[in-house]
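Design a sequence for this backbone.
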């Protein structure tokens, strides 16, 4: 783990492990929860440095927080930014093993 900037750990929050993410992994795609202020070039650089892979494309989406009512009180879940990272052929990330 050489030349890893500590800011890369602030950009990538966690991997997303769902049924949809598992199906996407068959097509060289990995889903990550990222910082809300992270840009696509920052996400690409962080993934390449942390996991030592080559990134082909990064797509981002923001899931809006839902309104919930619990015991008569209204609350709101926070927004979450996700990134779908497409890897070059021959590169893989196994999110179940960690860094």
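Sequence:
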């Amino acid at each position: 783990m050489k030349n890893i900037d500590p800011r890369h750990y602030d950009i990538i929050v966690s991997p997303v492990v769902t049924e949809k993410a598992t199906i996407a992994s068959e097509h060289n795609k990995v889903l990550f929860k990222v910082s809300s202020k992270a840009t696509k070039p920052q996400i690409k650089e962080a993934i390449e440095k942390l996991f030592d892979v080559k990134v082909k494309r990064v797509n981002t989406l923001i899931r809006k927080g839902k309104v919930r009512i619990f015991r008569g009180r209204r609350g709101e879940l926070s927004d979450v930014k996700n990134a779908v990272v497409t890897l070059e052929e021959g590169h893989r990330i196994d999110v179940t093993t960690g860094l």
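The longest strand covers residues 55-63.
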